[in-house]
Design goal:
The chain is of the alpha+beta class. It folds into three domains: about 150 residues, Beta-Lactamase (2-Layer Sandwich), CATH 3.30.450; about 80 residues, Helix Hairpins (Orthogonal Bundle), CATH 1.10.287.130; about 140 residues, 2-Layer Sandwich (Heat Shock Protein 90), CATH 3.30.565.10. It has nine helices and 16 strands. A hairpin with an 8-residue loop joins strand 6 and strand 7. Helix 8 runs antiparallel to helix 9.
């Protein structure tokens, strides 16, 4: 089904409202016309009744009415309605008129309007009570007529109103169509400006001259454009970083592979293959770090996808997986943790934080170094701390360590300079922060602080517990 256009929808709704309004207006006008007709013809009835009352006189000890035939015919003649009258003495009853009209009760009010049925016809009447003819005497004059003239007048008024209402409605729809078209022109101009944009143009839409109703729409479009621009920037940055960092390792691997192929000596051939495997491992690590960096970019992962994580368990399990490598490097790895803070985040990225910190310590702390991993609770912040007693770095290098591809002077080969950069990106993504400081007399301490969601105590973790591997 083809969706209804906004212009047509507005006009249809407006037309429906006009029809409802016209119908209600017609009903109201018809009722008002009947009321005005009743008032006009009621005045005529009252004048007729008062004229008849003037013909009543008291003589010969009774009430008499002098009503010539010509006067009677002129009185009851009407081209459209049937007119009846009746004059009654309060004591003697009917004096003159048509008995078909029922004698009404004598009321205290001098003038009373009545709705009645006479021989199956609806009639409107007025009763005038005259008490000044003779002391103790009261005369009732009742004049009634059918309702044809009243309905005819009301119908004419209704027809006139309906014609005028139809003309007014048609004129309103025509004017409304023009008004809707003018009102939708800003939207049409906005659509054309978007359609005319060149491919890849993600500049924001101007909203200074936009109608208030469209400003929310343009703000939403600008939000999407900003997200697309950010995503494109992240993609270009990732491609640039990947091309920059993978070019040299791939070239080295190519040289090592060609050397291994040309080496006739079996032992040297095996040595070349071993070097090639080491290069592949470094390349794999670098590739994984680049992918992690791209995944940790701001906006790459929605915070709504974060889940509650027991930070103690995550850090402990990740650290224990590094024990074999630390033992092979003749280094000590310990873990300390007394609390189980819960944070909201991405488990894989937080594991990557621990992996990068332990990988850095493994590379730079040196043989026989002691590396301690801690999980702390500091107010509303949970902290992951990795401390080593290695040589550390120069004080001037501390601020540069989180920079991408920065490697301190004198660093051993094999590192990419992405470890702490990745850690900082992940910390920022989790509304946390990274801190690096030197340890006396020598060593380095790296701390990641994250907002706490919930703190739970686990009896299985005793105070001052330390798990350590020593070689």
């Amino acid at each position: 089904m083809r969706p209804l256009s906004l212009r047509r929808g507005l006009l249809m709704r407006l037309g429906a409202l006009m029809l409802v309004f016209s119908a209600l207006a017609s009903v109201v006008v018809y009722r008002m016309a009947l009321r005005f007709a009743d008032e006009a013809y009621d005045e005529w009835l009252l004048d007729s009744a008062r004229s008849l009352s003037q013909l009543a006189q008291f003589r010969d000890d009774r009430v008499a009415v002098d009503l010539p035939g010509s006067t009677l015919q002129a009185f009851i003649f009407d081209a459209h309605d049937r007119v009846l009258f009746r004059i009654d003495d309060e004591r003697d009853g009917l004096i003159a008129g048509q008995p078909v009209l029922h004698a009404p009760a004598f009321r205290r009010d001098e003038v009373v309007y009545l709705d009645m049925w006479v021989e199956g016809q609806a009639m409107r009447g007025v009763q005038v009570i005259r008490r000044d003819i003779h002391p103790g005497k009261a005369v009732s004059i009742l004049v009634a007529e059918t309702l044809h003239k009243r309905h005819r007048l009301a119908s004419r008024l209704l027809g006139t109103v309906m014609v005028l209402s139809g003309i007014l409605s048609l004129l309103t729809v025509v004017l409304a169509r023009d008004a809707v078209s003018r009102g939708l022109k800003p939207l049409a101009r906005l659509t054309e400006s978007i359609r005319a944009r060149p491919h890849g143009d993600l500049t924001r839409l101007p909203n200074t001259d936009v109608a208030q109703e469209l400003r929310t729409f343009t703000d939403a479009i600008n939000g999407i454009l900003e997200q697309l621009d950010q995503a494109g920037h992240m993609q270009r940055r990732f491609i640039t970083d990947a091309a920059h960092q993978l070019r040299t390792p791939l070239a080295a691997l190519k040289v090592e592979l060609e050397h291994a192929i040309r080496e006739p000596d079996p032992s040297r051939h095996m040595q070349a293959l071993t070097q090639l495997r080491g290069g592949l491992n470094r390349l794999s690590r670098l590739t994984n770090q680049l992918l992690t960096m791209a995944r940790a970019e701001p906006g790459a992962l929605a915070a709504s996808s974060f889940k509650p994580i027991d930070l103690h368990d995550l850090v402990h399990q990740t650290a224990m997986r590094w024990l074999p490598q630390y033992m092979a490097a003749e280094m000590d790895l310990g873990f300390e943790g007394e609390v189980h803070p819960t944070v909201r985040g991405d488990a894989l990225l937080l594991e990557e934080v621990v992996n990068n910190l332990l990988d850095n310590a493994l590379r730079y702390a040196g043989r026989h170094a002691l590396v301690t991993v801690r999980v702390l609770l500091q107010g509303a912040q949970a902290a992951i701390v990795v401390e080593d007693n290695g040589p550390g770095v120069a004080a001037g290098e501390l601020g540069k360590l989180p920079e991408r591809f920065h490697r301190p002077g004198g660093s051993p080969t094999g590192g990419s300079g992405l470890g702490l950069a990745i850690v900082q990106e992940i910390a920022t993504l989790h509304a946390g922060r990274l801190a690096v400081q030197l340890v006396e007399p020598h060593g380095l301490l790296v701390q990641i602080s994250l907002p706490v969601v919930h703190v739970g105590a686990h009896d299985a973790v005793a105070p001052d517990t330390k798990e350590e591997s020593s070689t």
